[in-house]
Amino acid sequence: MGRIPLAWCLVLCCWGCLAPRGAQAEEHPFVRSPGNVTRARGLTGTLQCELRIQREPPEVVWLRDGQILELADSTQTQVPLGEDGQDDWKVVSKLRISSLRLSDAGRYQCAVVLGGQTFVSQPGYLGLEGLPYFLEEPEDRAVPADTPFNLSCRAQGPPEPVDLLWLQDAAPLAPAVGHGPQDSLRVPGLNRTSSFSCEAHNAKGVTTSRTATITVIPQRPRDLHLVSRWPTELEVAWTPGLSGIYPLTHCTLQAVLSDDGVGLWPGQPDPPEEPLTLQAAVPPHHLRLGSLYPHTSYHIRVSCTSSQGPSPWTHWLPVATPEGVPLGPPENVSAVRNGSQALVRWQEPKAPLQGTLLGYRLAYRSQDTPEVLMDIGLKREVTLELRGDRPVPNLTVCVAAYTAAGDGPWSLPVPLEPWRPVSEPPAPAFSWPWWYVLLGAVVAAACVLILALFLVHRRKKETRYGEVFEPTVERGELVVRYRVRKSYSRRTTEATLNSLGISEDLKEKLRDVMVDRHKVALGKTLGEGEFGAVMEGQLNQDDSILKVAVKTMKIAICTRSELEDFLSEAVCMKEFDHPNVMKLLGVCFQGSEREGFPAPVVILPFMKHGDLHSFLLYSRLGDQPMFLPTQMLVKFMTDIASGMEYLSTKRFIHRDLAARNCMLNENMSVCVADFGLSKKIYNGDYYRQGRIAKMPVKWIAIESLADRVYTSKSDVWSFGVTMWEIATRGQTPYPGVENSEIYDYLRQGNRLKQPADCLDGLYALMSRCWELNPRDRPSFSELREDLENTLKALPPAQEPDEILYVNMDEGGGHSEPRGAAGGAEPHTQPDPKDSCSCLTAAEVHPAGRYVLCPSTAPGPALPADRSSQAPPAQEDGV
Question: Is 242 or 458 the better-scoring residue by pLDDT?
């Protein structure tokens, strides 16, 4: 509706005084007033009023708390009801409020003006309710050890009240007595790095905040002081602060010049832009700074570092190096006799003075006289008076510079020489023929270069289609023989496999798998990571061009056995044919075999909507959130179960089933992907157990965590976690539980909680997937049938009365860009035992048929009888 006319504003300004008369009139037009509506924050609210009149329909105005809604999103429908010339009208006005906020709550009414009289409907109330909404969440911090600090967390409803519960390392903290809601948590100090989060509780349920990591760093060092000093060196010491349970690894000292604050390392022609920084091993906690300027003021500070990070810097400490004696004697000392006088001259020392030059001292002696010392001052020449006209035999002179710290080294003794007139040397005759020699050499070199380029170009033309034109003489005639090349085409797949030494049996199986690299045209990059990249591409087939996704994987294939294992698994995957299983189109190589074994390139179908996890996240947290009905979510689950049923019949074990490894095609059907050749590694979702390769611990079955034993029933466990991901629209499983704590958390009987808007039947199906005994879990056939029956029993898709999405992501998920056909970070090396041949060599276990596949990391494979043992020691962190 547009802007309200000025007449409307004047009439409605006093509608309060006219409303009672209108309300008492016999012909009150409103037959339906806005009802009371309660909705959740972020959803769409709709209010409606209806009136019947016997004249031209007026314009209906909406009021909130007595104020006109000028920019209201309202629609007005007018339906004629009159018969036999009667002018009866039914008017329906609907007010739509998208993305409800707290400010939208209040009392709503409709108003019309009929015959100069204002009529107002009965009020309806729009209220908001839902899970708590966080206004402030705890943030990551670095705090010194054993130092108090505060954390803040604020949430609001409605409904109120909202109670906060703080958790440290996923364990609840007892609330302080008599302080009410704990918006601020006072922590007296920590000696180890910990995580903190808070839960907001109200009548509608619980919302969990983000998890903040509080890193414990060393305290600021104390008592930084100067121990001893020399003209070019300073020795300092300090006392380290507390560092918790983490020992100090080293301390860092910085020094800057006091005059301009720029660090200077003496001996360089220009001072560096950064301060002088030195590291000291600890203990002991002292350091000697060398190569400094003497008689110079510095400022120094120190910081100590543990495995958790550096401590705060100490305050700057002013220090100064003392003055030193000159390091070298005066230069170019000369002594010349002129009659009864001797003139002695010298220049300033080139070596550093190490202080302020105060003057020079001169010493002279002869064979018959003792040494005489003279203080010359700052002059650099002096005239000595000689006694008598006879020359003084063996007279020598030496000079030294001095500062406040003392005398520098003396120059070498210089003998007194008689004065001779200085004559200018004759100028050499100008010689110019060498210019001609240089010019001739340059011209000759240029001619040789031009001739060489001409011959190379000519030989290239002659050998374009053969090796060489070889002239010979036969029977007195000149004959040109031409040896043609064996092949003009580019290297084929057969030639590449032959050069790599692939067995004949495997080469026969690879005829339908290998693709000529030159038939694949690469386009823009869809995603890129440490382990590879996904690019858009085109595959030139015989009669068409197919849009594909090309995975360039940085897989370290070091032996021919690893290469054959990789290609054998590609043969196995090429045979998959199911609408809910990603089909492998082919494999080609990039790089030359001269550089080692080439890197494989996997060609997959192009998936328009990208991976399922990113799609769920964008639907909930993207720039334009959209509502996904339960029917669509159950359809996603059914597609995955159907694909996994097909893989289980093929005796293929996925080992990494998760929403991030399922793709959405253009028909919104889910395809199971990222098995075998194209596994991904996510820093937040995968955890490294000791020396074992990274594992997706929040999706993996409990028996697989203990023994690395994988069966189809361990895939069923992962499918239950994937169902929970879909039901929560992409939330991270086990919020508040660290990867290293998952095994103990599951062994204590804990499982994922039922999502807020999840059907009871769906959660019961998830819970069956998480049975401790693998034999008690359903098969994928049973799961598919149950999900299909659930989907059939659901009513047609419609917007629920209340739903609220809360961001409970802890930063563990790394999603791919939309449109990729798989992860941009493939597994570093496919497990050879994870291929088809691995399944046929399965060992029989009392709990069922198990497949024992060793990890890709170095180390022996685990035996089959370790299902009851605890998992290996886990590291802290990912």
Answer: 242
